[in-house]
Amino acid sequence: MALKIGPLVFEVVEYGSKKEYQALVGNKELDDMFGVCQTYPKTRILLNSLQDDQSKQLTLLHEVLEAINFLYQLNLKERDIKTLEASLGQVLKDNPKFTQGFLNS
User: Fold this and answer.
1) d(CA 17, CA 31)
2) Strand 8-15 to strand 2-5: parallel, antiparallel, or no bridges (unpaired)?
3) To 10 degrees, the CA torsion angle through 43, 47, 49, 50?
4) How far apart are CA 54 and CA 69, in angstroms?
5) Mean pLDDT of successive 10-residue segments in the chain (105 residues)?
6) Contact criterion met (CB below 8 Å) for 58 and 89
7) What pTM was estimated for this model as a whole?
8) Distance between CA 59 and CA 98 in Å, rounded?
């Protein structure tokens, strides 16, 4: 799957082990157990496939917010992104008619 965020396309890649993660990021240590937004050398979002579906959705939303933060130089702190992730995720989940209408417009 790929997501267009601003002018860039981010490939969404899942990994299920530390070894897979290191192969994707060049043997670096596992920085985040849930997901990572990369902007260089490739634009992609890495997601830990071992999460349950709900956690994976929230992690993807979090990483999209990280990409927006980077692209538009918003200088949001991690705490701000986590707050947006949780609150926006809650609105989307609790209001399926809104979410579906928004997606279909």
Assistant:
1) 13
2) antiparallel
3) 160
4) 23
5) 96 92 78 86 94 94 98 97 97 93 86
6) yes
7) 0.90
8) 21
